């Protein structure tokens, strides 16, 4: 018998039992969101004059960068069967603190590093209660949503903290490199790393195994609690990165930033075909889902509809996506 526990764990039992139907369902989810994305783009191209222009498309990509970054991390979380409702609050807190740190004279590289560390620490705290204290992720992160947002409001008193326009920090959100917005380039790099980690590494397979059958994965030699802890660290760090980018783009840190952001992130991940029951995820689907959410928000504004209509559409999409998710993945589980 091999002395390496990972020799067997690299392909946990449940994962090796994946059927052709599983692959068909997963690919079908990606194809469905790809088709829906194309339909949305065509619809707004026909109904509005500005949607298909280069400046608007680049603006959509720039504005969707925080969503893409956090949705990539959320894919790991939801694939384990968990959820993180605190990402919007973490975004607000780090956006606020980054602006406050810069005003206090903290060098901008150090400010960014501190914000990423703060996001990671928040992930460690929440992940500990979820993985080791066995408290449901919904409860832990719902509490985190309230507490973390409260800290952001307490720090600012409800006001925005401006960032000096001449600071190199704002280049993270406003610079253009070879005609591409800097936030988009950052998002592309993070998405590439996330894709490789999810699809080509032991950790990605462990994430899938934990969501599919945590007990079987544990018996295969995987430290499932550690895996769960780390996906929340990833989620917290990604939300912090999104907060830094958003504050750099807006030139200020606001405690009101990111309200409802967690709903957009969950919508993007579920639309992309990741199972809410865990055990199956798709980074490609998540990217398409996030871009779809961004295109819908942009297209509705260009159609001169009230901005308050956007949450209604987002909520409806989440409901339909979860219904389809339930029918597809829970039905597939029953079939086995």
From TrEMBL:
Q: Which domain of life is it from?
A: Bacteria
Q: Which residues cross the membrane?
A: 24-48, 60-78, 85-104, 110-130, 137-155, 175-198, 227-248, 260-278, 285-302, 308-326
Print the keywords alphabetically.
Cell membrane, Membrane, Transmembrane, Transmembrane helix
**A Pfam family annotated for this UniProt entry:** BPD_transp_2
Subcellular compartments: Cell membrane
Where does it primarily localize? membrane
Instruction: Report membrane topology.
Output: Multi-pass membrane protein
Keyword Thylakoid present in the record's keywords: the answer is: no
Query: What is the designated name of this protein?
Result: ABC transporter permease
């Amino acid at each position: 018998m091999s002395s390496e526990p990972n020799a067997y764990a690299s392909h946990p039992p449940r994962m090796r039992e994946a059927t052709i139907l599983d692959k068909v369902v997963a690919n079908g989810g990606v194809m469905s969101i790809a088709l829906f994305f194309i339909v949305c783009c065509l619809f707004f191209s026909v109904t509005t004059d500005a949607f298909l222009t280069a400046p608007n498309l680049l603006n959509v990509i720039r504005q969707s960068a925080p969503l893409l970054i956090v949705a990539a991390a959320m894919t790991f979380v939801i694939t384990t069967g968990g959820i993180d409702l605190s990402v919007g609050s973490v975004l607000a807190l780090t956006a606020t603190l980054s602006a406050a740190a810069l005003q206090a004279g903290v060098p901008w590289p150090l400010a960014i590093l501190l914000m990423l560390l703060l996001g990671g620490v928040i992930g460690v705290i929440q992940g500990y209660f979820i993985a080791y204290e066995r408290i449901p992720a919904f409860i832990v992160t719902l509490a985190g949503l309230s507490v973390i947002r409260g800290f952001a409001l307490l720090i600012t008193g409800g006001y925005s903290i401006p960032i000096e326009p001449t600071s190199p920090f704002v280049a993270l959100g406003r610079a253009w490199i070879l005609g591409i917005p800097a936030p988009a380039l950052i998002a592309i790099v993070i998405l590439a790393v996330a894709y490789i980690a999810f699809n080509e590494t032991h950790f990605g397979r462990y994430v899938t195994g934990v969501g599919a059958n945590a007990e079987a994965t544990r018996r295969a030699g995987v430290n499932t609690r550690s895996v769960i802890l780390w996906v929340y660290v990833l989620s917290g760090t990604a939300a912090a990165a999104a907060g830094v980018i958003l504050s750099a783009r807006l030139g200020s840190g606001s405690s009101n930033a990111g309200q409802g952001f967690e709903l957009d992130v969950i919508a993007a991940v579920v639309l992309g075909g990741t199972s809410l029951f865990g055990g199956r995820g798709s980074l490609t689907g998540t990217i398409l889902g996030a871009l779809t959410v961004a295109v819908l928000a942009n297209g509705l504004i260009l159609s001169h509809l009230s901005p308050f209509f956007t949450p209604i559409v987002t909520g409806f999409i989440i409901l339909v996506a979860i219904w389809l998710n339930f029918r597809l993945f829970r039905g597939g589980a029953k079939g086995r």
